[in-house]
Each structure stands twice: as structure tokens, then as C-alpha cells.
Design goal:
This protein has 1 helix and no strands. With about 80 residues, the protein is an all-alpha fold. It has one domain. It is rod-shaped, with a radius of gyration of 33 Å. The protein starts with a helix and ends with a helix.
Length: about 80
Amino acid sequence: MDNLLAEIRQTNAEVKTELATAKIAMQMTQSDMKSILDDAIQGGLLNISNALSSMTTNTSMAIQQMEKETKIMKGKL
């Protein structure tokens, strides 16, 4: 009986050690995934900002071109 209790205690200690190791690994993985996700979000926001800036510039240039063409057409009419 004492031998069985000793084995149970040993198994319990091993399980606790493995669970603690798994917990640390999960925390590290969670931290890594948070960093990866934060980087991806920042990259996405930067891409959106760049696209919006480009759209604004292109729209302004298109409006200026239309205004020039309108003035030319008015001058011909």
C-alpha cells in the first residue's frame, strides 16, 4: 500500500511539473501570437493609410485635369 501511495505521489508530482511546463509554454505562445497579431494589425493600418493617401492624391489630380479640360473646352466653344 505504501508503495502504491509513493507511486501516486510521484505521478502527481510529474503531472504537476508537466502542467507547469505546459502553462509556461502556452503563456509564451500567447505572448508571441499577440505580438504577431499586433504587427499584422499595424501593417494593415499602414496599408490602409497609404492607400487612402494615394486615392486622395489621385482624386485631386483627376479633378485638376478635369478642370483644365473644362477650361479648354469652354475656350473652344
